[in-house]
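User: Can you fold this complex?
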Amino acid sequence: MSNDLLKDKKIPLRTLFKRTWKYIAKEKWSFILSLALILITVVSGVILPRITGYYTDEITSINPSLNKIIWIAVLMLGMSIITQGFVLLETMILTKAGQRIVYSLRMEVFTLIESMSQNQFNDMAVGSLVTRVCNYTSQLSEFFTNILVKIVKDLSTVVVTYIWMMVLSYRLGLVLLGVVALIFVISYIFSVNVHRVFSRERKQISDLNTYLNESLSGMKIVQLFKQEKKFEKTFNKKNNEYFKTKYKVTIAFAIYRPLISLIYVLTLALIIYYGVRYNLTAGVIVSFYLFLDYFFEPVQSLADSLNHITRAVSAIERLYNLLDIEPEVVDSKNAIEVDHFNGKIEFRNVSFAYEEDNYILKDVSFVINPKETIAFVGETGSGKTTILNLIVRNFEPQKGDIFIDDINIKDIKLSSLRKLIGQMLQDVFLFTGSIRNNITLFDDSYSDSEINNAVKYVNADTFINSLPNKLDEQILEKGESLSTGQRQLLSFARTILAKPQIMILDEATANIDSETEAVIQSSLNNIKNIGTMLVVAHRLSTIKNADQIFVLSHGEIIEKGNHEELMKSQGYYYNLYKLQYSES
Amino acid sequence: MFLLWGKHINKYYLKYLIFFLVGLASLITVDWFQLELPEVLGSIVQYLKDHGTIDLTSPFFHDTMIHVIYLAFILLGGRVLWRLSLLFASKKIEAHMRHEIYLKAEALDVTYYHSHKIGNIMSWATNDLDTLEEFLGWGTLMMVDGIFLTSFAIVKMFVLTPSLGLISLLPIALIALVGALCSGAMSNRWRLRQEANDALYDFSQESFTGIRVIKAFVKEKQQIHEFRKIAKKSKDFDVKFVFVSTLFDVLIEIVIAVIVSIILGFGGWFVYAAITGNPVVIFDRPIIIQPGELVTFIGYFFSLIWPMIALGQVVTGFSKARASYHRIANFLDVPIDIVDSESAIDVDIKGNISFNHFSFTYPNTSKEVLHDITLEIKRGQQIGIVGTIGSGKTTLVNSLLHLYNINPHQVFIDGADISEIKVACLRGGVAIAPQDNFLFAGSILDNVALTDEEYDLDKVNKACDDADISKDIKDFKDGVNTLIAEGGVTVSGGQKQRISLARAIFKDSPILILDDVVSAVDIKTEENILHNIKENRADKTTLIVASRVSTVMHMDKIIVLNKGRLEAFDTPQNLLKCSETFKTMSLLQQFSVKKGDK
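Assistant: Here's the predicted assembly.
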């Protein structure tokens, strides 16, 4: 299943073009305007070598005119400034248009991804989604603003230069036609080959990275099994291969670039030879010499652009493949909106397995009354967390039904269900941003007093107020600077702010210092008053204070009752309690 | 090169000195000869001016053509050579240093990895080395061109016509000025753009990773809203950066145009005045310039542009490369904690272990995890280790692998103090299946036969049988050659554990440690595994950390740990009488099994 959703499907070029046109059409005036500007700059740019030619003719003539000389110098400067002004204008128009396209594409892709279900998420690597949001979108826009426009620019430069050369001396122009063809062919062959080596280089560096990551992650095993030499050997092999490929690229360029410059100098020789042979003036020869720059560079980059097109197309294809994914709709057709829960929860013969036949929950039934606090206790893998997951429909049970206030949760809109059930998860995921952002989850609709009330309610105010910037303190390194207890308090505040009517809590197991422990305890006592609360409990105090304790083993509830009752019956709970808490 | 020195790189300069020298020599040759091209053009213009036409058969024309062609080939040779030599050296150095980084990473112990991110090492071994390599290769090119081509051209301009040289030198300084100003603004904008781009990556990465929280609180809209801000910022900074960098190009072009106009204007005036017989006089010296010389002069000026810009870029390139080098050097200089002492010996490990008042505290912490453990394990014994979470079970078995330095005279193997046994020898004699059952990408075979490059397939199969994973492997399409992870099957946690176990069994060491590996498998599988181990390791020592009493019930002796202290060390039967912890654990287990069977 994995990666199926992101599999590359070929899209016919026609469709590809049609879909892309949708984005381009919005910016068509920018494109038209910048194309017009490009043509102007190309023409005015190509005039410069010719002006230099006139100048050369003037100073080499028998009767030079000082006026003309000075005017030509001024004209050069003026033309140059105007041309450069247009270049700046054209680039900015195009860049802005391109960025607007990227922006709207990114929003479209991001919105789509956010609307996918948890299930669809599990099937896709986060990394490849990120690449699609960040890279492929800009590749699509670059295709138009950079590659296509550059092709137009290069092509028109070559054509205009060539026309001018033909006008100056069609015979020399014809000679140079051979040179143009030669550069194009050499550049194209080079470009095809070097891109092949480039893609191998990219593959090898990513291989090398994967291997590095892998062996660093498993370094303990490498050392314990004293396999350092073997791993070093493999690493070095990859390292050397990468070096060789990189050097191959260097060799390719070490042939190509000097070869082009050789052709350049030899072309100069040709210009001199034929210029002299056809009795051209010094000025024309100088013009031709300066024209060289106007077609050497563009012809090379034209050849290169052809290569870029194929690569851009595959990026665009992948982007469209993602956009074609339909979000899994999880609400049933007649799902209802609910704005209030009393808090009665019932499991009726619920069985659940992540993998076939390996049941984590086996035929579990129970009823929880409104406002009760229930603690789930049991070994790892006994099914405690699974029960909480099923209530918010992160997964659907294979058998049985779950009811809240006697409504089957399948018939409640997912957004209502999740809004009314506050989830406090064991692993508190913190987002980059301020403490405030992490409590509101970037929802600006909460007022400061609402936030402060929530923070106070869960006793998180003491620790937040001790931070230099209080609520606006930035969270660094995904909250590693915060203790487990503090993170849990933030998670509580997050939940309270959302005004839930049922709460589920997966307590953190990691060490919490006794001071924070006390804070969390009193905070939990507050939260308990809000409504029904289901806790996967590790803390003795939570367990003791619960209205009911459900003891789970191997997917079944084996004992039920409050602390005193269970201690009295001297069963599983009694022993567990003795083993883990006897000394507390 | 030239600027970047340090003990981790100097040795490579020396090693590839010949390549650097050849590279430098070729570059300087190219710099020298490429300035002859404008001279050729100038001489043609001058000849045409003087003679009107050029005779194809004249010696002047003949010599000129030969000159151009030999220039073409000298330049070809020089340009090929500097790339091949200089870039060879820089890329070789990159590869060498990457190797050094890897060796260092292998030498560092678990303590380092606990407190440092491997992402950093990865980035030193790739991004920072790239920066360094680029500076060594292209940075050297820019520096050589910046220094030699610039001075050659300026000297030639002055020799040709000092006055025009002076007039144009001032604005030439403008190129450097514009370059310096813009590159400052540009690197600033570039950084902002990069940050905005990183924010885009980070935000989407985080949003997709934390999607569970977002869905739980129904905050998709807020995420999209927040993303919109970031995407907008990225858009704006991108536009700003492009503006500054285009402005830089445009300004440079305009400065060049200004200088060209100055040269054309003044030069033209000088030429005109000389031709008309009234040469311009500056500082009492008449200036006489021929048209051909003016063309050559302009040619020199054009050769100056690139190296002037390059000089500006070298400065930023250098500071980046220096920062990268320091990061790498800092890593290479990290002291290594676990090293063989000078008196360390090789020991023929048989499997007798003794702890003598052993106490242990993790480095950089103050809490003692194990207190005063004294016990003796004989070769061939099967020892179970139990205790509550955090009682020190894993720490105890890890001490046998010298993962951390331990106090001398407290742990002995076959009578030798463990801190005096060579690490390689020690780890060769002790096999472990650790709690975190890390498997490498690759085939199951590669993982099981980790310790043996020329494995015997029968031995691999036997290890898999003993770890009770053979049945599972048979179900995979390619058997033991099935790839794990990337492009292969996804193995479950239990399967991973058993493959990790097979890997330890395969090593067939005098001492085998299983750190809680059988807890995730069902009772039947556990029984199989324990039975196999008992059968095959009669004369070898085995230590099994367990969370279930049933696992250790048939062991020779059991170590019961309680909060870092040795509560008891005895046979299971005796423990049921004397150890409180063991008794409770066993009761709990019976209860749970009974319920599970109903």
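Residues 283 and 331 of chain B are 62 Å apart (CA to CA). The first strand of chain B starts at residue 281 and ends at 282.
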